[in-house]
Each structure stands twice: as C-alpha cells, then as structure tokens.
Amino acid sequence: MRNCIGIRRETKDTTQQRVPLSPDHVALLIREHGIRVLVQPMEKRIFRDEEYAAAGAELTEDLRDCNIVLGVKEIAPEYMDDGAAYMFFSHTIKGQSYNMGMLRHILDRGITLFDYELIKDADGRRQVFFGNFAGYAGMIDSLWALGRRLEWEGMQTPFSAMQYATSYPMLADAEAAFREAGARIRTEGFPPELVPFVCGFTGYGNVSKGAQHLYDLLPVETIAPSDLAAFFSRGAFSNHVAYKVEFREEDMAAPMEPGRAFDLQEFYDHPERYVSVFEQYLPYLTVLVNGIYWEPRYPRLVTLDAARRLFAREDPPRLRVIGDVTCDIDGSVQLTVKETSALNPVYVYEPLTGAVIDGWEGRGPVILAVDKLPTELPREASTAFGESLLPFVPELAGADLTRPFEGLSLSPALRASIIAHHGRLTPDYEYISDFFSASS
Q1: What confidence score (pLDDT) does residue 436 get?
Q2: Which domains are assigned to the chain?
C-alpha cells in the first residue's frame, strides 16, 4: 500500500536498540505528509512502543500493508514477507559470505532490497549513516580498553576512570569523561612507560571525525605521519600531551613501481598496483583507531606478519589497543579475526602464537571489533540517523514499487540504493552473483 511505511522489530541480536526513525520523525511524517506508519512492538527499542503510539503510529505485528519496511540491521529470511520491499544495512555489496544466504532468499522470494549505505549525493558522499556515532563509541571503548589493559600491566593512568560507552547515558556524559581525563593528563601526566602517548587514526571520513572529536577533548598535539620517526629520534616528548597522527591514503600505501608518485585516483581504480607501507608506523603507536572503508582488493594495513615482526622484538612494543571500528573480519586489520559485542567487546590477539584470548590480558594488542558500535549510544545515534533519512521517506512511501526497475520514478540517490528489485539484482549490483558460489 502506497504512503504506508513500516518500522520493523530488530531481530539480529539482543543488544540492538537503534531505530531508523524516532517518534518525533514519525509524528512529522504523519502530520505533514499524511503517511501511515506501522510499528512492530519491541521491548528493548531505545524509544518505547508507547512513544510511537503517541506520535500516531499503529502498533502491529503485521507489516504487509507497507509500501516499504525500514530496519537497521540484516533480516533473517524467516522475518521477510515474499514480494515485500525492505531498506536496511544489508552488508552484501562486498560479497560478504555471511549474508549471501540472506540475499539468495531475497532473490528467490521476489523481494526488493534498498540499502542505506548506497544513498549518496552526486559527488558520491553517503547521505544516510551512523558513522559519526561509530567513531564516538569506538573512541570511548578503545580508551576504556586501554585503561583496563594498563591496569593489568600495573599502571594507573588518566584512562583508568574511563567507562564503556553503554555506561554513558548521553554523548555529553562521555564528552565530560574525556574532558576529565584531559584534565588529569595536564596535571598528573602519563607514566614514563607510555611517553610519548601516540594515537593513530586511519581515514578522515565520518567514523574518523567522530573518534577524533572526542580525542581532541584531550590536550592534543598533532604529528604528521612523515614526521613520526624524526619526532621519536629528537626525544622532546611531553608526558602532559596526547599526540595524534591522522593517516591518509598516501601515508598508508605506495606504488609498487619504484620512484612512482602516489596517485589517489589510480589507487582507487587500480589498488593492485600499490602495496601497504603502514607497518613502518606500528612501532610508534600506543593506540590505533581504524576507520577506513576497505575491500579485499586494497592492501591491508596491519598484517599478521607485521604484527609478528613487531612482537618478536626484544623490547615490548608500545602498541596496546587497536580499535577496529570498521570491523572487517580478516580485513584491513588482519588481527580482527572475529566480531565482538558489547557483552564481550575485546580480545587479545597474540601474534607469536596466533592465540585469541577474550579480555585484555596477554602478549599482544587488545582488539576492539564491535560490529554495532552506534547502538552503544542508541538514542542520539537514532535521532541523527533519522534526521538524515527523513528527506527520503516521503518519496519511498509514495513510490510505485510494483513497476519494473527501469520504470521506477525515483530520485537518482534512491534508485542507486536498490540492490535487488522483484527478486533480481539491479544492473549496478549484478556482480554480486559472482560471490554466490564462493559462499556455498
């Protein structure tokens, strides 16, 4: 039914509290656009069922009247209606093997799939995202993990009082904790064993910006990647400063051909012509926050071999924590060998043995690899996400999705976000079929 949308109950895991639209967004859609909104009841949703009902939504288990159903995380086949239309983060465009079964079901049952990740402007910038909040939560959790790791090593630091992200009711509470840690750095400083304290950030998009927003509440000085070695050689460090390094593509990779200059467009188009040079920075970092987009065709940042070489040295490495916000399993950080959750968020990867030990104790870096970080700040993350999604909802609600893909009357941004329509991969995503046999 056109002009009717649904908000589904999240079913992937018990920690998910986020929603695509808040009750305030629902009220606006009903009041200003005459859209009917159906909401499946959900006990642990960050906004209560009663709030949606008060906004004018209908609470119901049956979403079959909806023109499109909105969710956040992937939907298991048993929760999808044949021939229906859904929009959620599908995690399929890289051919992710763990979601190929879900995509096969979508194709077999004539379902239409929109993906938030693919809604972009004319310059290719994502328009609907949780990225900033992934960065916020990833930064909080990385320094929480660092505080726990250093306590195990016998060090009390300004990060000893940091809590896990879910302990902060609002982002402002986490910001206050960072300011307090910053005040302790100014007055107490870091233990000598940690000086200089250096945190590296890969990328400069929404994830990295979110993480750096919090880190910058500390007394920060920035170092260019190219200056790291000289900075350490000079030895003019302060124990009252948290140093920061931001790595861009030209810092992390270099052309295979000797003497050839780095070319960003060539790197995007032909990454096979480039090799990773990130290993040179690892000895200088205390914490690494990884926030880049990565595909298997690109060079890795932190390989197993690089980690082995680092931890085989006689002196204990400086690197204590890798906050892998991107959380690509066996991806840009090869030490990310499994996903974690807020219930068990970190593990130690021991490079010399390959052992994986839950917690923060062991000879190796602590790996934070929570795949749903924005849900740790669910109210504000959902509100911000809904604000970015809201302009597209009336068009989605009113579109005649029964028409063939070629005849759909949709804006370019929404048309490009359709991975499958009526059970067929759309032209831009037909390549995904190549991954089906590999995932069998």
Answers
A1: 86
A2: 4-119+379-435 (3.40.50.720), 131-376 (3.40.50.720)
